[in-house]
Amino acid sequence: MFARCPKCGHAPLPADQALPAACPACGVILAKVGQAARRRAVIDADEAEAARPVAVQRWHHRLLEVPDRVDPVAFWLRCALLAAFAVWGLRLIALDHRSGEIGSSFLHGPLLVFHEAGHVLFRPGGEWLSVLGGTLGQLLMPAVIVAAFLLKNRDPFGAAIGLWLLGVSLLDVAPYVHDALAPSLVLLSGETGEAGGHDWIYLLSSMGLLERAPLLGAFVHRLGALVVLTALGWAMWLMRRQWRRIARADSLDRL
What we know:
Layout: H1 30-51, H2 54-64, H3 72-94, H4 108-121, H5 127-152, H6 156-178, H7 199-206, H8 213-254
């Protein structure tokens, strides 16, 4: 809908601007002007993409790739999924890392499995790396998901969800780091870290950083929150691009 004539600036224009409505002053067909503007917008977007350096184009395309034709049903299902992950992620961010509240969340159990597997996976690297391997293991799993969706499946939305999980894993690590200075979390052994077996007491003590455990725990929590919010923003941008692709397809179908 044009408020003023795009050619001569005349106003008001007819309320119904579908063919064959024309500007009363100059006679230009309003619907045809709108079609030309939409075609020009498509061409301008393509030219802007072509002007980027090749490496930037490649990663821009890979990170923000959307199908040529977007299924509206799949689009709305992904929107619903994204809304659920957004609410879930914000609730996990709001949990107090100092008291280890995230330990009661559903995702703590699966992440703990990968944490313990990480100790075994990195054992050949020696004792220090084996201890760190627990944390590396639970961070490596969502990182692999991101890479698989992005590089193999060419599904950046799935990669964004994997990045969300990486952020949640960092949120899950934060209480463990914070707990190193004054252990209160109950470990798998059924005892607190003072009795032994606390990864981050060992790691931070070996680096002379035990006194900074609360500060480091807060940093990991904030980093996890940032990653979760970045993942949600990425997924929202992809949904915006998909919506525009649906709208563009509808416009071209009407031409």
